[in-house]
Fold this sequence. Notes:
This protein is of the alpha+beta class. It is built from 2 helices and 7 strands.
Amino acid sequence: MPKAMSKSRRPYLIRAIHEWACDNGHTPHLLVAADYPGVIVPREYVQDGRITLNVSPMAIQGLNLESEPIWFSARFGGRPFEVQVPTGAVLAIFARENGEGVIFGETEPADPKTAASSAETTPEPEPPKPTRPGRPNLRVVK
């Protein structure tokens, strides 16, 4: 009788370390393999195929760690962006202040069915265009 496939521990560990970091006043960060199937992040912030994302409640909105993939809204360079990260793409979750957390080291194999359907249903979003080309959108806040 073949052994049944068990669920990955990765999503459970991600949720636990995120909760621990927030409860202790730390800033949780995800290190993500940006080239993993289904990852949607702003490509201009990817370095060496990886991106580090601040997932603290103060930095993002609508974080959902309960479903696959992880998703939330964030601002990059002042522009809103919907981020999507399959848990298999998470290489580490850690607290910025002390580096404590979990390093997974490598990605989990992507489910070919999930990766194919994600690529078909989730087109790469276009970055928003500035409201006034050539001029920054800054203003003085007192």
